[in-house]
Amino acid sequence: MAPVSERLRWLFLAWVISMCITTTQCVDRSNFKTCNQSAFCKRQRSVTPGNSPYRALLDTLELNENSMKLQLLNKVNKVPLLLEVSGLEGNMVRLRINELKPLKPRYEVPDVLVKEPRTVPLAVVSRDEGSVEVSLSSPDHRLVLTAEPFRLDVLAGRELLLSVNSRGLLVFEHLRQRKDTFTAKVSSAVGSMWDTIRNVFSSASKKEESSEEGEEKADDIEPTAEQTDDKAEDGEAEKVKEEEEEENEEGMWEETFKTHTDSKPNGPTSISLDFSLPGVENVYGIPEHADSLKLKTTDSGDPYRLFNLDVFQYELHNPMALYGAVPLLLAHTPRRTLGIFWLNAAETWVDISSNTAGKTVLGKVLDYVQGSSEELQTDVRWISESGIIDAFVLLGPKPTDIFHQYASLTGTQAFPPLFSLAYHQCRWNYNDEEDVRSVDSGFDLHDIPCDVIWLDIEHTDGKRYFTWDPNKFPSPRDMLRGLQAKKRKMVTIVDPHIKVDSDYKIHKEVRSHGYYTKTKDGSDYEGWCWPGTAGYPDFTDPEMRSWWASMFSYDQYEGSMENLYIWNDMNEPSVFNGPEVTMHKDAVHKGGWENRDLHNLYGFYVQMATAEGQVHRSGGTERPFVLTRAFFAGSQRYGAVWTGDNAAEWDHLRISIPMCLSLGLAGISFAGADVGGFFKSPDASLLVRWFQTGAYQPFFRSHAHLDTPRREPWLFGDENTRLIREAVRQRYALLPFWYTLFYQAYRTGEPVMRPLWVEYPADVSAFAIDDEYMLGGALLVHPVTEEGARGVTAYLPGKGEVWYDVHTYQKHIAPQNLYIPVTMSSVRKQSFYKRPLCS
């Protein structure tokens, strides 16, 4: 008999899985942190605006052909930082802040940028004792750096575009030794003795004493006497007291959430920086959140959270973290579009608030700025748990310029194979090979186009990925050949949690190579997921990714063929018994980096390695198709994304539009939502409307939960089958158009599915619209997403623009709000075009 502890563990795992497969539950918010429960977010949010302790030391300024460098000094703790500002080709500015001389390196995000951005020369225009003005390559764009308190303003002519640290919320928690360790206590005692001796015998000035203790020069920048001014004004005793209180603040060296304790061997390492955007009222981006397209202010609630999590049946209209994170925010006015890209892969919170521009425009900038001091302003504050500050300001000025600028940094959407733009049929799970043949034949029998059939986790041998259940799928190649004869493909799921089983080839190889992520104690990190106890390969390790890619070759992935493609799920990663259903933050990756430093990169690397495996298996001749649930900036280079485990509800149908729009703005064009909803069971009207909507979204796949009734398109009666057939055929009729749009996205970075304001940037009426959208620059779509709707009102933008109803060819002159009567068969009445679609 198994030990009691072992039996209890399996009982608990069975309970966890049962909770995951029931369809009557919704998200348990108590499983996920609020800002107030996240020690670093709470600590950062308690900082009072307008009292910045940082000043720029202008006498350390160095200007070369690539950048401007100088030191920032925290007047309270005397810790110096290194600021580096670069002008980049394509009308961008890069801002990096790190410790001048950290105790150990801090994490800097690799592999996301496609290359090191090319810089443009900077030139000092003017300088005085309190500020310096620098021109970018364009004489119209300038940077004004104010010394005390530190702030950086970006101007175009006499227009202030953006201010950095204007609210004084720059916080950079430096690496330090813990005060209550034996080593630290000895160091402190020796230091105190030396201070006493020095005070008795030294007659040198306090400034000379301080300069002797100053930090050594880094990057050829010498610390100055200013940064080592001796003691705070309130005296040494007060300073020591403050530091001791700070060290003892809850959550700095250890943090407990529910039953999980996070050890923090590096102590507090969080960073924060604020950006002010005068004249801006509308900001967008930072997916993934189940919320409106236009971001809301967060003053009265939590900030938007970016931390990849497996959120079971997520709620709508709140800033909770979901499966992916792209730290790109866009700001839009009728005159200009700007972007802020915060390159940090740790847990991040984004605060958004409204302000008045006059409250933050001070000092020398007043000499330049034109316009009303009462102009509205949006303030954005980024807060991350670790790493460095590495921010890119994208200066536009047009929306398309922002897309080009961001694509130059992180790459464009991978150009997908044509079949992947067609219709996909999936559920958890098709039972066996006979079931697959039956579904395949059903599409032919009912004359509904379909290019891909999917298999979820039950197709494997006991949740061992890269295998097939020998009883249910004994002849996978024969099954694949049957699909291939009809020019159809198959997608199987390959998740990144590996069953711990000494007889399982994949586990044995990962363990023997030492490729598993480690615990803080150095053993292989294990958690619970679909197979039971599972290990988690360290995808941050290039050698591990290369090995993983090799597993997709035809001689390794038994039963695979050239028409088999891959789906990466649960790659946040999902750990059923982990804190917040994910990996422990103090788990250790290649190079000794903690998961807290790079958590949001895990899914990015899983998809990268899988896509590379498909390329390699074909000798580089085939374009891959990989669907991922978790993602980060740059994930667009490797395939498609879907919005995760939605529900068969009208609200979820509606929210799919702004969620896909937000992903497109952040570079990920190939996105869609599960048609019909993953959880729960849609009635016929909801299912039909979802097919009609999904047919006009980039990724078009029906998917359903294991515990829901079957919902193949022909199971809802003849009339509904006809309506679904018409919707799917509309998709196929436009496939050349879709393919062209994706080629343009691949070449330019411009989103396939885009908000109206992208095409009509001066039309204020379009700025908040997120129930209709553009496909490319020519086709406007307004899906029917209200239950029982008898009509919709579509806004036709563009002064004097001529729009044609795709169904009736009737001409309409914009701008106008056009009421359109609809019936259940009105799939074509939801779209308008304004010029030849492929011009």
TrEMBL record:
EC class of the enzyme, as a word: hydrolase
One record GO biological process: N-glycan processing
InterPro entries on file: Gal_mutarotase_sf_dom, GH, Glyco_hydro_31_AS, Glyco_hydro_31_C, Glyco_hydro_31_N_dom, Glyco_hydro_31_TIM, Glyco_hydro_b
Pathway(s): Glycan metabolism; N-glycan metabolism
Keyword list, A-Z: Endoplasmic reticulum, Glycoprotein, Glycosidase, Golgi apparatus, Hydrolase, Signal
Keyword tRNA-binding: no
Subcellular location per the Swiss-Prot or TrEMBL entry: Endoplasmic reticulum; Golgi apparatus
Name this protein carries in UniProt: Neutral alpha-glucosidase AB
Native organism: Acipenser oxyrinchus oxyrinchus
